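About this split. The held-out portion is used to measure sequence recovery: a designer receives only the structure tokens and must propose an amino acid at every position. Recovery is the fraction of positions where the proposal matches the reference. Here is one held-out target exactly as it appears in the evaluation file.
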């Protein structure tokens, strides 16, 4: 079975070695084995678990919540409902974030059109005669 060093995993996942050590210190990597010298040896399944950790982190989940999830995984089938509920909550949070981003994108698209037409006309005056625009 192939194992990876911490620097190989960091490069593979576009993370820093410091981040991986921090995750380990916070108890997010209890599954990672060490050799007799104490060097972390990552398996492919560990990399997959780190991808889930990064996914949860990207949803805004705090490290403490991710640690709880990792603990539930270690506890086995008794925590399937908690894990399912947690992912349903994450899904709802991401959907809300996406809706906010859609609103933000609509404003950005409006301003891109505003400036494009102003550039084509050589002046913003074309917008000022129509209506009061949002702040430049």
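Reference sequence for scoring:
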């Amino acid at each position: 079975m192939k194992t990876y060093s911490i620097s190989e995993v960091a490069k593979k996942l576009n993370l820093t070695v410091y981040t991986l050590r921090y995750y380990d210190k916070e108890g997010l990597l209890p599954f990672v084995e060490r050799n007799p010298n104490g060097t972390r040896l990552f398996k492919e399944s560990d990399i997959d678990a780190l991808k889930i950790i990064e996914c949860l982190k990207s949803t805004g989940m705090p490290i403490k919540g991710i640690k709880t999830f990792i603990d539930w995984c270690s506890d086995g089938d008794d925590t399937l409902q908690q894990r399912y509920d947690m992912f349903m909550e994450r899904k709802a949070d991401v959907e809300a974030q996406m809706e906010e981003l859609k609103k933000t994108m609509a404003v950005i698209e409006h301003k891109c059109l505003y400036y494009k037409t102003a550039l084509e006309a050589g002046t913003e005056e074309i917008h000022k005669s129509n209506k009061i625009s949002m702040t430049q």
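Annotator remark: Strands lie at 33-34, 40-41.
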